[in-house]
């Protein structure tokens, strides 16, 4: 009875074929009318809307794409994810890991592990499972359909805060140099040993710098309140060999900031300079050394002016180059706010050659004279290299320093001759007396020439 009932309800093959034929004919007719009446652009728009609608409702995943570059600056969300994801190595679903040993001081140290390209990393946030994928060194994706709003509002903020905490406790700093051919920063591990504890410098000046750096690191709210970019500028000037580079290293180690060492001579023009500097990270040091030789000082500009007046090198005059205004605009102009918590350090051997515009307050907040060796600096060097606090020869050596100019680098070279304090200090006395005699002879020759 039941079988006969269902047999009556099931349509015949001919009926199904008839319905299929009718639908096919209707579809062809509808497509023809659609193509004839509706313009191509309107059809494409409708198709795209239908596709987006069905994809958003029936696709099981939603993907956030995070790329390294965003407009003219580095994508800080990418940097935060790049810092945060290595802490999730336990959640990688790949059969491989990057193994790196970057401790130059201890080759036997435990290696560090990284995430290879194409690897998938799982994370959990407030009970929500998440999946990251490292597609390349410049693109990361995060996949999840549900809780999209929470991820956008809370999870990315959590990653940003976590990355800041991680960077504050980072063990290995980096020093970056710009490669103009590849148009990108290249980095190496920065393991300079100089700290403020080992830096040979006048005690009062050293303490002043430490207080200034500490106040800067805690001054985010202050800079925001007064409406200034969160940055600090230092000008280190003095003769070669007086410890300018060592002071930069001490600042980097004290602040836990990586260094971006920019050779301004290799930058083509102002546009390239903006592109280079906006691709640096927060909490970093921008170092421009030998500013007096960069072409932005007054002497170089005077030479260029003389060439223009003489009508020489017409082809060279048309060549683009970094201008003083371009550099100033980034140091103290609108572009200076692109990166937060930045320290800008310029070094020069000849402060008098710099354009006065570079020395204006607000651009170089602190001017630090790295001078010749003093008795205080000498004692610090002797304690470091000879491991002595007192010696009978200290007093006569200190008296010679009042008459002879010697750089800390020259003194260090003499102290490293021997571990025996007597031998090293005698050699230093002979070196200083030789410099004194040479200086006396030069002064005599000058006076005779003037006479």
Structure, described:
The protein has 451 residues and is α/β, with parallel strands linked by helices. It has four domains: 2-58, no CATH class; 63-171, no CATH class; 174-369, 3-Layer(aba) Sandwich (Rossmann fold); 375-450, no CATH class. Helices cover 46% and strands 17% of the residues. The chain is built from 16 helices and 15 strands. The strands form four sheets. It has a seven-stranded mixed sheet with strand order 10-9-12-13-14-11-15, with helices on one face. It has a four-stranded antiparallel sheet with strand order 1-8-7-6, covered by helices on one side. Mean pLDDT is 79; it is low at 297-318.
* Global structural class: alpha/beta
CATH topology description of the largest domain: Rossmann fold
Overall morphology: elongated
CATH superfamily of the largest domain: P-loop containing nucleotide triphosphate hydrolases
Number of helices: 16
Tags for this entry?
15 strands, Rossmann fold, 16 helices, transmembrane helix, 451 residues, 4-stranded antiparallel beta sheet, AAA+_ATPase, 7-stranded mixed beta sheet, alpha/beta, 4 domains
A few lines on this structure:
One of its GO terms (biological process) is response to stress. The protein is an alpha/beta fold and 451 residues long. The protein is built from 16 helices and 15 strands.
Write the layout of secondary structure elements.
Layout: H1 2-9, H2 13-37, H3 40-58, E1 63-67, E2 69-70, E3 73-74, H4 76-84, E4 98-100, E5 112-114, E6 120-125, E7 128-136, E8 139-143, H5 148-168, E9 173-179, E10 184-190, H6 203-217, H7 220-226, E11 231-237, H8 244-255, E12 258-261, H9 270-277, E13 284-288, H10 298-310, H11 314-317, H12 324-332, E14 342-348, E15 366-369, H13 375-385, H14 394-401, H15 408-415, H16 421-450
Helix pairs in contact: 4-5, 13-15, 14-16
Pfam families: AAA, AAA_assoc, AAA_lid_At3g28540
Keywords: ATP-binding, Hydrolase, Magnesium, Membrane, Nucleotide-binding, Transmembrane, Transmembrane helix
Family: Belongs to the AAA ATPase family. BCS1 subfamily.
């Amino acid at each position: 009875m039941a079988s006969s009932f269902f047999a009556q309800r099931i349509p015949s093959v001919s009926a199904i074929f008839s319905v299929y034929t009718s639908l096919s004919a209707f579809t062809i007719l509808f497509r023809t009318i659609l193509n004839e009446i509706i313009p191509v652009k309107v059809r494409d728009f409708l198709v795209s809307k239908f596709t987006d609608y069905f994809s958003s409702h029936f696709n099981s995943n939603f993907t956030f794409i995070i790329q390294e570059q965003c407009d003219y600056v580095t994508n800080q969300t990418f940097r935060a994810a790049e810092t945060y994801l290595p802490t999730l190595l336990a959640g990688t679903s790949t059969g491989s890991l990057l193994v790196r040993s970057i401790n130059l001081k201890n080759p036997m140290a435990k290696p560090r592990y990284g995430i290879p390209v194409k690897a998938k990393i799982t994370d959990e946030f407030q009970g929500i499972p998440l999946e990251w994928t490292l597609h390349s060194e410049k693109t990361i994706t995060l996949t999840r359909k549900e809780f999209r709003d929470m991820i956008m509002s809370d999870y990315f903020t959590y990653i940003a805060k976590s990355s800041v905490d991680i960077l504050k406790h980072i063990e290995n700093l980096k020093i970056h140099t710009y490669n103009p051919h590849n148009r990108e920063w290249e980095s190496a591990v920065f393991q300079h040993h100089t700290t403020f504890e080992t830096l040979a410098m006048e005690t009062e000046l050293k303490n002043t710098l430490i207080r200034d750096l500490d106040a800067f690191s805690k001054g985010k709210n202050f800079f925001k309140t007064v409406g200034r970019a969160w940055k600090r500028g230092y000008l280190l000037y003095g003769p070669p060999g007086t410890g300018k580079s060592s002071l930069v290293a001490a600042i980097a180690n004290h602040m836990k900031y990586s260094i971006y060492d920019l050779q301004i001579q290799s930058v083509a023009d102002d546009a390239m300079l903006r592109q280079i500097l906006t691709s640096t990270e927060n909490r970093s040091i921008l170092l421009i050394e030998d500013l007096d030789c960069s072409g932005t000082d007054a002497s170089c500009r005077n030479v260029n002016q003389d060439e223009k007046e003489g009508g020489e090198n017409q082809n060279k005059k048309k060549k683009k180059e970094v201008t003083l205004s371009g550099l100033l605009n980034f140091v103290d102009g609108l572009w200076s706010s692109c990166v937060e918590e930045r320290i800008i350090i310029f070094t020069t051997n000849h402060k008098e050659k710099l354009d006065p515009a570079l020395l204006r307050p607000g651009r170089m907040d602190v001017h630090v004279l790295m001078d010749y060796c003093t008795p205080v600096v000498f004692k610090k060097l002797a304690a470091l290299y000879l491991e002595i606090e007192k010696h009978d020869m200290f007093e006569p050596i200190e008296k010679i320093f009042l008459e002879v100019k010697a750089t800390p680098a020259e003194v260090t070279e003499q102290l490293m001759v021997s571990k025996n304090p007597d031998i090293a200090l005698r050699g230093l006395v002979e070196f200083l007396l030789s410099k004194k005699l040479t200086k006396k002879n030069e002064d005599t020759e000058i006076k005779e020439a003037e006479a």
